[in-house]
Amino acid sequence: MGRRLLLPHTRRLMLFLRPMRYSASATATATAGSLRDPLHVCVVGSGPAGFYTAEKMLKGREGVRVDIIDRLPTPFGLVRSGVAPDHPETKIVVNQFSRVAANPRCSFFGNVTLGSDLSLSELRKTYDVVVLAYGAESDRSFGIPGEDLRGIHSAREFVWWYNGHPDMCNLAPDLTNTDSAVVLGQGNVALDVARILLRCTTELASTDIADYALDALRSSTIRKVYLVGRRGPVQAACTAKELREILGLKNVNVYIKEADLATSPADKEEMRNSRIKRRVYELLSKAATVHQENNDNDRKELHFVFFRKPTKFLPSEDGSTVGAMELEKTLLKDDGATGKQVAVGTGEFEELKCGIVLKSIGYKSLPIEGLSFDKYRGVVPNLRGRVLSSESETATVEPGLYVVGWLKRGPTGIVATNLHCAEETVDSILEDDRKGLFTDPSGPKRQGRRGLLEILEQKNARYVPFDGWEKIDTKEKADGELKNKPREKITRWNELLEAAREG
Amino acid sequence: MSMLEAAHENDIELEGACEGSLACSTCHVIVMDVKDYNKLEDPTDEENDMLDLAFGLTETSRLGCQVIAKPELDGVRLALPAATRNFAVDGFVPKPH
C-alpha cells in the first residue's frame, strides 16, 4: 500500500518494518545461518553502553548468551550515579534495561571487578566475545599550581557524592566555609553541579539525592556560583534544556555580561552550522538582558564567566584550603588546522575569591592491564568498536575484543548516544561472527557463564545477581516512601552487599 | 494515542527510553510528507530541546511521543532515521583514515 519513498538518511518506512517480538525465543533478523552454536558474550560495565549492547546482541543472532559484569553491586552505571537527582525522567530508561536483564539468556554479575576478580585474558579465554563498556571513571586535570589544595574536587566526585556512589560517600565537601563556589567548565555536568548547589533544598528533599548530601546542602553557606569557561557563549558545551532549567531557577539572579555576547564572523559560522549552539546563544542573550531584582538575602547568584582560563589555585589565609583562583583573560583564535576556535591567553590576569572549586572539564577512562590505550585521547584504540592493538597505523585487530560507549568514543554525548554507538559495535561483532572469526575448531570451546562461575568460585568472589539488585531496589524504595522520596539510596559498600543478600 | 504508543502496540521497533516524558530523543521520527508535518502543532520549546539532540535530524522531524493520532493524520507515513556506519552525533565529524 502506497509507494516506498526513499529519503536520505532513512532506513525504511515504519509501516513496512518487520515486527520484532522481544521474547525468550527471539528469532534472528536478517542474519543468515542455520542452527546456531551458542555465542558466549561478556559485557564489562552495566551502564547504557553495556545494556544497549546486550539488548542488540540478544536480538541480533540466535543462541547468544550475554553476561554483564559490573564492579558495583548495583547496575546502570551513570544512570544511577551520574544523572542528577532532579532529573528523574532521564532515569526511566532503567525499565528497558531491567527487561534486558530479565531475559533468560542474559545474566547480571554485580560486585565483579575486571582487573582484580578476574583478568582480561581470563575473560577472553572464557567468552567468544568480550565487550568493554566500563566508561570513564577518572578526570582530566589542569596541571596548574595549587590543584591539590583542599576544597578542589572534580565534578565527577561531587556528582558521585550527591548521588550516593559508595566510592564517594565519605567525600564530605565543605559547603560552609564560603559564600562563593566556582565551577570550571560550562557543559551539562557543570550546569548540574551548579544547579544542585543553587536549588532550594525543599525541592531537592523529594528527590533520590543521598541523605548526607541533602543535609550538607541544607547547611550550605554558598550563595554565589560562578560558571567559568575558557571560551565564549557560542562555544559553551551545555544544551538548551539544561540551560533553560538553570536560568529559570526560582530565587536565583543570573548575571551575564552583554560584552561577552559579541560574536565574530567565526562565531556566526559556528552557529550557522549548529542548531544547538544557536538556541543556547539565544537563551544566554535573553538572560543577559533581564533586569536583576535587588539582591536580598533570599536570592542566590549565578554568574556566567566567559573568556577566562584558570592559571593558579591560591590558598586561603590560613593555608588550609583553596581561597581564590587566578584567571587569565582569553581571546579566540583559529587553531589553524580544523577551523576550531581555541582560547589563547592575553597576559591579563584577575583573581576570583572562592572556597570551593568543582572542575568539570571532562572525564577520562582508566587503562587496564593487557589492553591497548590511547593516553592522549583517553580511549581504547578501535575501528568501529573492534579493539586495535595500538593507535599506530600498523595496528592489528584484537580478535574477539570490542569496545563501546565512552571507552570507545570519549566521555561525550547523552544516554541515547550509546544507542547508536552500541549499534555500530554490535554490527561489527555480527559481521565478524558471520565471517566465522569466533569459531576455532582447533581451540578449546569457550565455557561462557559456566567458566565465569568457576573462576569466581575459585577466587571466592561473591557476585550480586540481578535479583540481588532487586532486593536493594525494593529496600531503597521502601525507605524512600517514608520520606516522600522515590528512594533512599544505600550508599555504603557493606550495606549494599548486605541488602543484596537479605531475605 | 501517540505514534510511540502506536508503534509499540504494533510491535514496531521505535525506541522510547524515557517512555514519553520529553527527556530523550530516541523516538525521533521523520514525517515524510511536508503537508502532514504542517498539520501538526508546532513543537514546544521542550520538544525542540530534545530534537536538538536527535540523531539524523531533518526539517520535518518530530518526537514520536508528541505526535498524537487524529483523523486529519490518516495515512501519515513516518520514517526512522538510519544508523549509518559513519554516524554524526553532536557535531562529531569522523576523521578520514
Automatic annotation (TrEMBL), chain A:
InterPro entries attached to this UniProt entry: FAD/NAD-bd_sf (IPR036188), FAD/NAD-binding_dom (IPR023753), Ferredox_Rdtase (IPR055275), Ferredox_Rdtase_adrenod (IPR021163)
SUPFAM superfamilies: Nucleotide-binding domain
Keywords annotated in UniProt: Electron transport, FAD, Flavoprotein, Mitochondrion, NADP, Oxidoreductase, Transit peptide, Transport
Pfam families documented for this protein: Pyr_redox_2
Annotated localization: Mitochondrion
Residues reported to bind NADP(+): 186-189, 230-231, 242, 413
Signal peptide start and end residues: none
E.C. numbers: 1.18.1.6
GO molecular function, one term: oxidoreductase activity
Domain of life: Eukaryota
GO cellular component terms, A-Z: mitochondrion
EC class name: oxidoreductase
Main location: mitochondrion
Cofactor requirement: FAD
Binding site for FAD: 49, 78, 114, 406
Domain FAD/NAD(P)-binding positions: 40-230
Reaction catalysed by this enzyme: 2 reduced [adrenodoxin] + NADP(+) + H(+) = 2 oxidized [adrenodoxin] + NADPH
Family recorded in the similarity comment: Belongs to the ferredoxin--NADP reductase type 1 family.
PANTHER family registered for this protein in UniProt: GLUTAMATE SYNTHASE 1 [NADH], CHLOROPLASTIC-LIKE (PTHR48467)
Protein name per UniProt: NADPH:adrenodoxin oxidoreductase, mitochondrial
Taxonomic path: Eukaryota, Viridiplantae, Streptophyta, Embryophyta, Tracheophyta
UniProtKB/TrEMBL annotation, chain B:
Alphabetized GO MF terms: 2 iron, 2 sulfur cluster binding; electron transfer activity; metal ion binding
Gene Ontology CC terms, in alphabetical order: mitochondrion
Single GO biological process annotation from the record: P450-containing electron transport chain
Pfam families, sorted: Fer2
Cofactor: [2Fe-2S] cluster
Record's keyword terms, sorted: 2Fe-2S, Iron, Iron-sulfur, Metal-binding
This protein's name: 2Fe-2S ferredoxin-type domain-containing protein
Origin organism lineage: Eukaryota, Viridiplantae, Streptophyta, Embryophyta, Tracheophyta
